[in-house]
Specification:
556 residues; alpha+beta; 2 domains; four-stranded antiparallel beta sheet; 26 strands
């Protein structure tokens, strides 16, 4: 499922790009993010005309001859003669990225020599990973809409091993293949493709079509691929069809934990504020108990669902969520206030330092004092947790995984606690980090640096912004600019990618800032022990005093 939440924008302002690359940058695309992808491709020496963008995928797409050649070379990795094994290894390296899928399968070979050499080849290939090129090319194909875009991307999909690339292709296909709510016939045909990855992509695209198109997914509630079932259920829930909710129960029981977590989130969105307090769990018994709980809830509440007004996206409620630590006589709390400043509810926590509101009124909390990131309902019942020393950031990703950062590390963990990657950062203190829409990671370091890492952990940007000596925060705006909380400089600053200051606002020791939909800026001030809302001129239009020190604030 595309990473629409928090794989957000990884931003460059067009003006900053022009400064960086001068007259060589082509004219701006229709949306700001397209110019970002242009720059990535140009930096990788990839041409950005329509034919070249399609060629990015065509030259990485396996045909049957390629498959047979790669299969034979993989077999020869286990040959009795050393020279033959070496030649096969060199040939596979020359084939490059097209061999990734069969090589990953070969790492599970019972022939230890084949498995070892396949692993070594993959390591060499992935050191220079080109996921960013593929994601950017897919994005621009979606924007430009060349005639053969749908066919080229569908043909390539089985050759990909990178979920972020698949997500990018799916998002591009939505742009390419839906016109006035109608889905192209090629996508509908792909629903029955023998390759699961194509069926998944097709189901995702159709789920974004109009009400009548989404009805075509009814038979796929029982598809043999569980991810196809999930997209079919999502589409039909949007249509207000109760049988789709019941299909989600099967996913809770049978799907891999990461997909089951997405099904759980969808159930929480359907249930809204009346959601039951249930934990998915990771073992069969816990998951069966979760299914039973949802079925009981559904039996009692299905007739009460207002399908016509059901909002499956994040609703804007005008409520302010505050993460408050170092309270007198208390460890800290997460709480929510309305426009009147009155507390609507609160959850106690041991010096919480970051939080995210999840569907179904659940919370994801980075508990600095407790050494854990955990998920809880508003009663304080813990539904999921992961132990880590001094967490400073937490983020639930659209794929159901959780991104976490502490003072010197960034990592991503699955629902069952498996670490997908963990990158140690050689820094004095990392005060904040988040995962962006394109799979990159943005980090704020106490040395005054704003750093961006690509999907392999390689540094692709470093800006010395100063003012990060006490605490820090960063947000990438839709324009591609960065909104920075610079506690050491007593300032909120908006900059472009060159570091040029575009807007600033003075406030004592700000830990975090976020730009609101109305253009105002919401700020948590450590020293002032207050939350401020500033208009575009820097005037305070709302203020909330508190007992302790606020570390994060969000408006929902």
């Amino acid at each position: 499922m595309p990473t629409s939440t928090n794989l957000r924008t990884f931003g460059l302002a067009l003006g900053g790009l022009l400064v960086l690359c001068g007259a060589s940058l082509p004219a701006a695309e229709p949306d700001p993010e397209a110019s970002i992808h242009q720059r990535i491709l140009l930096d990788a020496k990839v041409k950005i005309d329509d034919a070249s963008l399609l060629e990015v995928f065509r030259k990485r797409t396996l045909n049957e001859t390629d498959r047979l050649h790669i299969k034979e070379n993989i077999r020869l990795l286990g040959a009795r003669t050393y020279a033959v094994r070496e030649k096969a290894q060199r040939d596979l390296l020359r084939v490059g990225k097209m061999a990734l899928v069969p090589l990953k399968e070969a790492t599970q070979s019972p022939d230890l020599e084949v498995a070892r050499r396949a692993e070594r080849i993959l390591q060499e290939m992935e050191q220079g990973g080109d996921a960013a090129v593929l994601i950017s090319a897919a994005y621009l194909i979606g924007v430009r809409q060349p005639k053969e875009g749908v066919a080229t991307l569908l043909t390539y999909l089985p050759s990909s091993t990178d979920s972020s690339v698949v997500d990018g292709i799916q998002s591009a296909l939505v742009r390419l293949a839906i016109k006035e709510g109608k889905v192209e016939p090629a996508i509908l045909k792909a629903l029955d493709d023998k390759e699961a990855v194509r069926r998944v992509a097709a189901a995702y695209v159709v789920s974004k079509g109009d009400t009548r198109q989404r009805q075509a997914l009814r038979p796929y509630l029982n598809d043999k691929d569980l991810e196809v079932r999930f997209h079919a259920a999502t589409a039909l829930v949007r249509n207000g069809e109760p049988q789709a909710v019941e299909a989600l129960f099967t996913l809770l029981r049978e799907a891999p934990v990461s997909l089951a977590a997405q099904a759980e989130d969808l159930l929480y969105r359907v249930a809204g504020s009346q959601a039951p307090s249930l934990a998915l769990g990771t073992d069969a018994s816990a998951r069966e108990s979760c299914v039973a709980g949802w079925k009981t809830w559904w039996k009692a509440n299905s007739s009460k669902i207002d399908w016509k007004h059901l909002n499956l996206e994040d609703a804007y409620l005008g409520l302010t969520l505050i993460c408050e630590a170092q309270m007198p006589g208390s460890r800290g709390r997460i709480y929510e206030v309305g426009a009147d400043g009155k507390v609507r509810w609160e959850v106690a926590s041991n010096n919480p330092i970051d939080m995210q509101m999840l569907p179904g009124e659940r919370l994801l909390i980075a508990e600095h004092g407790g050494g854990q990131v955990f998920e809880t309902d508003r009663s304080g019942k813990v539904l999921w947790s992961y132990r880590i020393e001094n967490p400073v950031s937490c983020q639930r990703l659209p794929n159901g995984n959780t991104f976490i950062a502490n003072y010197n590390k960034v990592l991503e963990v699955t629902r069952d606690g498996k670490v997908l990657y963990s990158w140690q950062r050689n820094v004095s203190s990392q005060y904040y980090a988040c995962k962006l829409r394109n799979g990159h990671i943005l980090c704020c370091h106490s040395g005054g640096e704003l750093i961006e890492l690509d999907g392999s952990g390689k540094e692709v940007m470093r800006l010395n912004v100063g003012g990060y000596s006490k605490w820090a925060g960063a947000e990438v705006l839709p324009s591609g600019h960065f909104l920075l909380a610079r506690a050491g400089a007593d300032e909120i600053t908006e900059i472009d990618r060159t570091g040029k200051v575009l807007w600033r606002c003075r406030v004592a020791n700000p830990n975090a800032a976020t730009r609101l939909r109305n253009g105002h800026t919401l700020v948590a001030s450590h020293d002032d022990q207050a939350i401020y809302e500033f208009d575009s001129t820097g005037k305070v239009v709302w203020k909330q005093k508190m007992q302790g020190r606020p570390f994060r604030v969000r408006r929902r």
